[in-house]
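Fold these two proteins, one after the other.
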Amino acid sequence: MAKTKESTKAKPKTKALPQKKVKQRDQVKKGPHGGVRLVLVEDVTHVGKQGQVVEVKPGYARNYLIPNALAIIPSEHNLRLLERYKVRVEQAREARKSDLKTLAEQITRTKSINIEANATEDGHLYGSVGQQEIARAMRGKNLLVEPEMIKLAEPLKELGYDIPVQVALGYDVESTILVNILPQTVGRR
């Protein structure tokens, strides 16, 4: 009878070993040229526009684009979020373009700006007139222009009238303004 009791006893169960956990990392997809494929969240100069799927070098993506939130890894969730975000950005971009076009019209309506500079009798300036001075003179006429928007090949170093200066406002909106560099009056500094 002892044998039957033993046989009725349940066999000791072998403990099932837990499954080894494998870490799933967000692997960045490789493009056909061996670079990393990313979706741009914002416009990046010389790379692409917002919403485009671009291929860049892995170091550029890892060290600059992803940490500065300029690009994200293309997943289904990120692409859905990006589509919603893209609509709002497009509306803001259109509003900004219309503002820049009105600013360009104001610049063309303003015939010229006058800048006084200290000069010799021959007409050579003691120093030069650059982007900062032109932007300051334009702000004096209520034209909100940053110095980076003014495109000069080189600073102006001589007195002159009606010198054309390009103003690149952004989004391919450009305008031209005429600059008059006048000798500084004796009493002013």
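Now the second one:
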Amino acid sequence: MTHVVRVEFSGPARAQYCVAGEGRVCLGDMVVVETEWGVGMGHVAAVLSSEAVERMKSSLRPLVRKATPTDLSRRAALVQRERDARAFCRDRILARSLPMKLTEVRIGLDSSKAMFYFTADGRVDFRELVKDLVQHLRTRVELRQIGVRDEAKVLGCAGACGRPVCCHTFLPGFAPVSIRMAKDQNLALNPGKLSGICGRLKCCLAYEHCHYADLKRALPKVGSHVATSRGAGVIRGQNILEQSVVVNLETGGQVTLRVSEVSLQPRSETAARAQGPGRAVSPRPEETPPGGNPAPKDSERSTGRRPRRQGSRQSAEPTNGEEISRDLAALEDP
């Protein structure tokens, strides 16, 4: 009977699903599997039913065998070899003045391949560095550039909540996170509070977003005109979790009411009440002399020239709001 197992590796939250075949595999067994850095070794964290084979066929890798005592001793020796390779690579990066930062080194169990992960602001010509690494390790070498989120996943740290960051402990991948999620949860749009150690939006913003979005649909939007037991008013605030709204009454004052205590009021009725029972008097257009040019205003007669039109020139200096908007937009970068 074919089984699908979840194999987890040492280091950051990295796992993959493998086909165990006909062999018997139990929880906690050390197994040898094929990985992106060659043949790797990890432990079985979960055994799934055969029904998962059809659903996960595209992402499954073969399980080579159960780990033998020879594999365990070889893996212990590779840990020290990875440390030496990391130190050598960093020395060569400094010697060649390459604008890159080494993050992680992985060497396959059979030493047929070595994978070096790094971060950089742009593209880096590391061909000479690859030659140095191949000559030093005597194996196939691959360098892969990763983003700042993956760097935080590898290095790990304590987050703003005081716990280890989620990407290092249990998150297998990164879900899209946007500023809209923070707005839907009525969070302050402060880049310092919304960003994690990677400098991007916190992954935890997406954890409860679906719940907040469902609750927010039941609330009237800010600026809506509503009718209450205390009179008509306008929505000026929302409390999503408590399902209440802040209403500015037309008679004066501000009240907090449950969503069941307010009802949306059509815009036409509100406009008619604000206009009053009489007919609205439209403003009389300015008279134009026979010549076709409008008559000058009093201020123009006294100075002899037309006043400068406001807003014709905009200041080149960005406002504080524009700077914050740019900072928030940068948090959404991958």
